[in-house]
Structure formats: C-alpha cells, structure tokens
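Dear colleague,

Following up on yesterday's call, I've attached the two folding results inline so they're easy to grep. Please treat them as preliminary; we haven't cross-checked anything against experimental data yet. The first protein's sequence and structure tokens come first.
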Amino acid sequence: MPGIPKLSLVEGSFEELASELATYLDSLKGEGSTVSSDITPLLVTPDPEQPEASGKEKETDKDAVLKKLVTSSSALNGAPERELQAAYNLLIHLISQSEEPENYLPPVCRNLTAPITSSPQNGTGIALGILGTLFNTLQPDDETRYHVLLAIVELVKRSASYETIRPQLANIDSWLSEWEMEPSESRKLYMAISDSASTARYPEESYIYLLKALRTLESEPATPEAREMSLKALRSALQSEKHFDFQDLTALDTIQSLRKSDETWSELLDVFVDQTFEDLADFKEANDTFIADSKLDEDVLDRKMRLLTLTTLAAQASENRTISYAQIAKSLRVSDDDTEMWVIDCIRSGLVEGKLSQQKQEFLIHRATHRTFGEKQWREVASRLDIWRASLTNVLAVIRQQKEEYVREKEAELSGATGGEFGGRAQYRGRNNRNQPLTLDME
C-alpha cells in the first residue's frame, strides 16, 4: 500500500520527532505517564560522529513506537487549541512513515470524533479540518479513506453541518467500489450518512441512504438487523410527505421478509402500494391501536392516502378522461367544498395534471401517475400505442392523398400550358401593358 504524502514540511528524523511527541504526550497526561521512557529503548539514533552504518546495526522498531504513541494519542484531545492541529499533524506524519499506516489511522480517526475537551466550541471544526486534510492526502484507492470519511460523517452529524459534505457524497458509491469494502462496512457508512442527513433535516436524502444500506442485506433478508432497518425504512417512507412511490420498497427482499415477521406492517404497506382511502379506513378499524403504538402520524397517513386515491381515480378514468367532483368527494371521504383543494394539492405533488371545471363540476385529466406498473398497465400502454399508430396512419393517408392531388393539379396546369392534346410549342406574345390581350401562336 502506498504511504501517506506529507501533510506539511516537518523537519527532523523519525526518532527525534517520535521522542518529541512522546514527551508532549507525557506533559498532557501528567504525572505517572511513561510514554517517553517506554519508547526510548525502541529508538536508535545514529551518532553523527561515527561512520555510516554498515547495514548490520540495529534499526528503530517504528511499528512498536507507533503502537505506543497511537495508544496514548487520545490525550491530544486535551491539548491547547493553538497546539492541537500541529500535534495531530505530527502524529500523522510519523504514521505516514510506517509500511502499514492503515493499522494506526483508524484509532486516530476515532480520537478525533471524540469531544475536544480543550476547545468545546471550536474543537469540532478543528477535528474536521484535520480529517479533511488527511482524507485528501490519501491515495484515491486507499481503503483507509473509508475510516477517515466515517469519522468525518460522525462529526458532521454531531455538529449538524451535513451541508458541508453533501456535494462530495455524489461519489460515495464509486468510492466504496474502489476501496472494495465489505457489505457490512458499506452498510455502516450508509447508515451514518442517513443519520447525519436526518439530523440536518434532509429526510429524503436520509431515506435514499437508508435504502442503500438495506440493499447490502439482500443476501440475508431475514436477520434481526435487516428487520430493524426495513421497519425504519418503511416508517420513513410512510411518514414522508413527498414520498408516494413504494415500489422501491416492495422490490427489496428484506421488505418482503416482513410478511412473515411483521404481518400488520406488511398489510399497511400493501394499502399504500395500490389500494384506496377506504381500504386504509378498514385497516385502521381492524387494527385500532397499531398506528398510535407504532408512533405514526395518522394525519400524514390520511393525507397521503387521499392523494394516492385521487391518483388512482385519475389513472383509471374512462375514455373521456374526466372525474366528477361527486366521485372524488365520495372516494376521498371529504366534503364537496373541499374537492378542488384536494385536486390542487394532488397536482402540486406532481401526481396528476389536468384542468378543473367549476361549471361542469369535473376534473379533466391530462396526465396521471400509475401507482403500480404491471401487466395491466403494459396492456394499456400497448392499446394506446395502437391507437396512436392508427392515428398516424390516417394522418399519413391524408397527407399522401393531398400530395397526389397537388401533383395532378400541377400536371394539369403544365399540360394546359404546353398545348395539351395539340402538342407543339406554345409562345406567348404580349405587352407590358396589362390591359392588352395576349395572343397565343401554336407552331
């Protein structure tokens, strides 16, 4: 694995800098700390007055030194604010000289996610600066970047500063692929991002990363972890005011496993997949305390189900593509006066497009979203394509007929101008004065 590029210009040999950092750690840890005395026997400092080493002399055991330094490095979180970043940079510089720096950076990242006791106000910002620099200096394919990014996400969650990493998260899938992370490690990072987005009140983005985490469990859909995450995703989708398509959930094996472990949750999902507000009312009547016990917002569920019911009505409308106000009010169980409000709300949600007619008391549908897309919908698409093809055939026939008539008229005009059945050549003689008649001589 390639080493870490230098973060800054640090003068001195490994032995000198390690001894300096050990002494600093002892000063932070206080009386009784033995970091410096522990590493001194491990350090071999060449004597400048002696000839160059023959290659047989003892060398510094860098790994043993780094283990002791990294083990004690949590004390750096108590360093004065003005010295904190320099001290961590020195530690990272020493780690970069190891042949396997990935063994030492994860503990350092964990230290940086812990509270900076010497700077409660600015500590998070300083830690993010150190981690950001470290992430950018690692090689793109270095899997150690994973641990650094995980620490960054944890800090972002704590400081509610999710916006600072949003642009970079577009690369998360390619990064994980490049680092060749295990599904469990990818899942841990996805969940951390999801929690961070949720804390910053980005519910839709939180849901997206939660689904990504769920997909890493497709090979083991019935585990307790899969069940817990599936219920979390289902609850998030149901409570979201903007999420109306549930096929992203039903396509997951982990969600399908709920049919055995959590039948009531599965029934509720089925209602929102392709059923109506009346079915939701029946569900609530049959499971009178389920919604309250599950800490679901009933008002949010009712609103969403009314919009989805109206979407279904629009998608199933007859050939004239209209729905009466009375039908809408009955299906949504609302008053006639509220019908237009619900139609407008459905249009704003992007589920339907159309035009309201107060005079005719109906809604003319221009477009409607299908909640599910199966064999029935494919047949409908095929039927509409046949109608469209027949219409185009008729249009082409009319155009062809008009073209043929135009050609015949032109041929008739040309035939008359050239003498028609008499043949020969026509010559026109005339004057510039339009009042004078033209004479036609045939040769």
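Below is the second protein, in the same order (sequence, then structure):
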Amino acid sequence: MDTLEQLADTFFNWGAMAEVLPSLIMVGLPNTIMLAVSSAVLGSILGLVLALMAISRSGAARWVARIYTDLFRGLPAILVILVIGIGLSPIARDLTGSRSPYPLGILALTLIAAAYIGEIFRSGIQSVEKGQLEASRALGFSYGSSMQLVVVPQGIRRVLPALMNQFISLLKDSSLVFMLGLASGEREIFRIGNDAMANSGNLSPLVAAGVLYLILTVPLTHFVNFIDNRLRTGRPEKKEPDELAAPIGKGAQA
C-alpha cells in the first residue's frame, strides 16, 4: 500500500465514518449545542456584570473584575475544566445526588467565557461617545438609567460580531468536557469520534467529528461577517416607486 492509499485509509475511511455518523448527529450534536448555548447564555450574563464592574466608580469592583479576567483568560481552558469538574465533583454529588459532569462542565465553560465576554462588553460600552451619557443625564436620567437605557444597549450592538466569534470558540471548547468522563448518552461530538477512533484504531471518526464542527462553525462565521458588514454600512437604501419610474418616463418621452 503506497503512502497516499495509507493516508486515505487512515483519515478518510468512508465505512468508519458512516458507522459513527448516526451517533455524531443523534447524540453528539445535541449535547454539543446544549453545552455551548448554556455556557454562552450564562457567560454573557456574568460577562456583562464583569464589564459593568470594570467601568464602575468603585475601585474594589474594578479590581475584582480585573483579577477575575486575568485569571480565567490566563489559565488554559483544559486546566479550568479539570479543576472545577474534578475538584468540585464530590460537593456537587453530595448536593444534587447526580454524577453527571454536565453541570460542572457548563460552569467551567461559563467562567472561561465570562472573562472574554466581559472584556468584549467593556470595550463596546467604552466605545460609546461620552456625549451620549451626558445628553441622557441632561434629560433627567440618573447615571444608572443612562447606562441601562442608552449606553449599554449601544455598546452591546457594536460588539455583536465579536460576541458571535466568542460563541464559535466556545462551541469548539465544549469538546474539552470529554476529559470529565461522560456516560454514553452524554457524549459530545469529539468524545464520540474519539471513542470510535479508539475502538477501530482508525482516525476517520475524528475526521468526521471535525467535519461536523465545520458544518456548525462555517455558517456562523459567515453570519458574523454579514452582521459586521451590516453594522458598518447600514441597510441598503430602498428607492421610492417614483424614483424607479422616473427613468422609464424619461425614456418614453425621448
């Protein structure tokens, strides 16, 4: 067997891919989406709190936000997942009676995502012109109301593409939860591909898992580009019916 045939058999064995595909779609895909969406929602809420703390007038709040952000952005994601997923598992088991690693996996991903999302929100909020805050205060709004109703919504709108990019990263980072040990019905995309690879000795199931990640992330990437372009250029102006009819009338008169 020459090198190309060996490469094709190792990475592109269609029989091995077809065998693992039902589990990837029926089990791995829903679990991966559940992990990513849950941690993204919770991470966004915590990230917004961190962003508001980072720009608050309280020095203590700013320090807490800074330490949190530096800590969870500086540590490798796999280390955070292992420390929380394994270190807190006895406490979680005693409190809930469940041995599922999902809650702790979501907690770890949430804490990691919040550190990045908080910085995204902070940069977006601080990019809003100071005149917006001053104008709302001049209209009688309190500082808190001005931030809540005027500044924060504009800041979030400006960083929507960056938030979508962070969600894509979170979608891929969800594969690290496999280190906590998952039951058969709890396995996400990567774990299913990895188990199939270990059983068959062939890397094709992992390639199939990678293709499924691409199917999830590539459309999201193009959607991010679309949102970014729409925010920068605005909606295309629609011509009024009279404007559309004008050239025809001129041609008819000619």
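For the second protein, one point worth flagging: The two ends are 76 Å apart (CA to CA).

Best wishes,
A.L.
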